[in-house]
Structure formats: structure tokens, C-alpha cells
Design goal:
By secondary structure, the protein is an alpha+beta fold. It has 13 helices and eleven strands.
């Protein structure tokens, strides 16, 4: 198929694989967009219509058994595909679930852009629950191999990611950050340590406070910004610089939750997988990420061509990703039978590095 050849050439920009492997990857991404699930039986029905589904299923198993896609090649390809920015905000978080008795626990870091996060690096944790500082800094070091610190505006994360060694590790790598800290964290200011909820409990709902001087948090001198929500909950942010921008930067933390939602129930049903071996899961995450990125970029383009009116709450009625996914599915299924303005060739141009 012509569109498979086009996608194969795009994948060749990133992965040094045999042509047959690249052709399979392009077929897999297309099938994933059509069936919207990582269930192998469902994928086999859309992988190659010229052969029996059983043969497709054998190809799927053979690929995941024999090939281990290079994560550095993937990250470099992603940086080529995404819009070039002077500096990036990165969001860090985990997603986890169980397959039988096996914990699937993924620590992921990606670029925040247009209301969502694009995956760059991740680590499969062989345990249940939170990551530790060694695992987080290992992930950061992998990232810095192809995205230098001066290109990173800030790393944002929730309360799971705090502590002296972690914060010091980021500062030692010249990385700015905005991290939410727990309300019982001790804040040292004017020679007095008080938990954040006591020091800033006086704030009224909707109030914000940016500390004019640095304070002591986990033994480090950091900036601080605090707000109290309309529900009365304190949001306490520790950051390395520009505390007046802390809330704007931290707001992009939620974008990684949108990514996880897109990979799971609202997109490709990632939790339907039965793969548990790390190398196979890494392959699947790479293929999922490429399909997601393609759909999102197409969605952005579709909104430029045919804008939709914002809802009363100020959000789009349909996300870039969802609209792009619907568009791509139609383009793939109809192929050359549809008008050029919604052709698969146009979609491939958007994905071309």
C-alpha cells in the first residue's frame, strides 16, 4: 500500500532496521489507529487484509519476540517530529495497573505542548508504588543525552516527586523545576520552621502568595508560591526560579494525565495488552507513542482548517488528539478514494520530520 510505504520512509528517519521491519511497524501503527486497541487479536484483523488473521497474529508475536526497538532512536525521532521550541516544559509522572499478578508501573517524562505531553523517555519499574530518587535521576540522565539542560525551561511534577536528594540532583544538573510539595512540609523562613499548612493557612479561597525571598525546603534554598483553591485546599509549589510563573508552569503538569488517558481508555486501550516482558512493553510504548503523536499533529492541522467554537468553559469540544484520531482512521480506511483535502498523503506530510 502506498501509505504504508510513505510511513515506512518516515520511520526510516529514526530507526536503523531492515525494510521488512519498518514495513511491519507502519502496518502496526495503521492497524492501531483503525482498531484503537493494543489487543493482539483485534490488531491481527487489521494488520494485513491479504493474509489470514492467524498469520498476522504470528507476525505480531514474531516481531515482539525478536526485535527490541531503540529508545534513543525513538526519542531523537520524536524531537524531529514535534514543533521546534526555544525551550521545553517537561512533565513527569507514573501510570500503573496490573496484569494478573504482574505490576505494570511506568515512570514517564515528556514534552508538554498544546495541552498534552509527548513521550520522550520512560522506565518500567519492577515493583509496585512510587519511584525512588535513583530511578528518577537515571531517567533524567537518559533524557540529557539528547535534550540539553539549556533547552529545558522547567520540569514539573506532583507531590510524589519531592525530597532533598531529588531536588539537589536536579539543581546539580542545572535543571529548573516546579514541584508541588506536601502541605506538612517544613518551610524555613525568618529563622523559623513551620509546616506549609500552618505558615500559609491564613490564605482565603482563591488567594495566591509568592514569597519575596527564598525559603528553606528540604535543606535547600528555593522559591515558593502558594494558592488556596475554591475548595479550600492549599497548593504549595517549590521552584528554582521565576516563582511568579510557578502556577503557569505547574498547570502543564496535568498534560501528562491527558497523555495517559489518550493511551488508555480514550484512545488505544493500552491496558488491554497482555505483554509483561520489559522489551516487549517498550516496543509497544514506542509504537503507541508514534500513533498518538501522528493523531495529535493531524488534529492540530484539522483545527486550523476547520476550527470549532470553544465551549462555555473555554475548552475545545473535541481534543486535538481525538479529532485527529477520527480523521486519520477515516483517511486510512478510505485511502485514495477520498478528496485530496482529507487525504492520507496530507496526514503523512504532517508527520514527516
Amino acid at each position: 500500500m502506498q501509505h504504508n510505504k510513505g510511513l515506512k520512509e518516515i520511520l526510516k528517519e529514526g530507526f536503523k532496521l531492515h525494510g521488512a521491519r519498518l514495513a511491519f511497524m507502519s502496518c502496526f501503527i495503521k492497524a492501531l489507529i483503525i482498531v484503537r486497541t493494543v489487543n493482539m487479536s483485534s490488531l491481527s484483523s487489521a494488520l494485513n487484509a491479504a493474509v489470514y488473521p492467524e498469520s498476522n497474529e504470528k507476525r505480531l508475536k514474531r516481531f515482539f519476540n525478536e526485535i527490541e526497538l531503540d529508545k534513543i532512536s525513538f526519542a531523537n525521532l520524536m524531537l524531529k517530529l514535534l514543533p521546534k521550541l526555544d525551550r521545553y516544559i517537561l512533565s513527569l509522572d507514573r501510570t500503573n495497573w496490573k496484569i494478573g499478578k504482574v505490576n505494570i508501573n511506568i515512570l514517564m517524562l515528556g514534552i508538554s505542548h498544546q495541552g498534552i505531553v509527548f513521550p520522550l523517555v520512560w522506565q518500567l519499574l519492577d515493583k509496585r508504588g512510587n519511584s525512588n530518587t535513583r530511578e528518577r535521576l537515571s531517567l533524567i540522565d537518559k533524557l540529557l543525552k539528547y535534550l540539553p539542560a539549556q533547552k529545558i525551561e522547567a520540569i514539573v511534577a506532583d507531590r510524589e516527586f519531592e525530597g532533598n536528594t531529588w531536588f539537589k540532583g536536579l539543581k546539580n544538573r542545572n535543571l529548573a523545576f516546579v514541584m508541588r510539595i506536601k502541605n506538612n512540609t517544613l518551610i524555613g523562613y525568618k529563622a523559623k520552621d513551620l509546616p506549609a499548612h500552618k505558615r500559609y493557612g491564613y490564605l482565603r479561597k482563591g488567594d495566591t502568595y509568592v514569597c519575596p525571598k527564598r525559603v528553606w525546603i528540604f535543606g535547600l534554598r528555593l522559591n515558593l508560591a502558594v494558592t488556596k483553591s475554591q475548595e479550600g485546599e492549599l497548593l504549595v509549589l517549590a521552584c528554582t526560579d521565576k516563582p511568579e510563573r510557578a502556577f503557569v508552569r505547574y498547570a502543564q503538569r496535568w498534560n501528562i494525565e491527558c497523555l495517559f488517558s489518550a493511551l488508555k481508555k480514550r484512545g488505544f486501550n493500552f491496558e488491554d495488552t497482555r505483554l509483561t516482558q520489559p522489551s516487549r512493553l517498550n516496543n509497544l510504548i514506542i509504537l503507541l507513542s508514534l500513533a498518538f503523536t501522528w493523531a495529535h499533529l493531524v488534529g492540530e492541522w484539522v483545527y486550523q482548517q476547520r476550527p470549532l467554537k470553544l465551549k462555555n468553559h473555554g475548552y475545545l469540544p473535541v481534543s486535538f488528539f481525538k479529532r485527529g484520531l477520527n480523521y486519520l482512521r477515516t483517511a486510512i480506511l478510505a485511502s485514495d478514494a477520498i478528496p485530496a483535502r482529507i487525504s492520507l498523503a496530507s496526514c503523512l506530510q504532517l508527520l514527516s520530520p
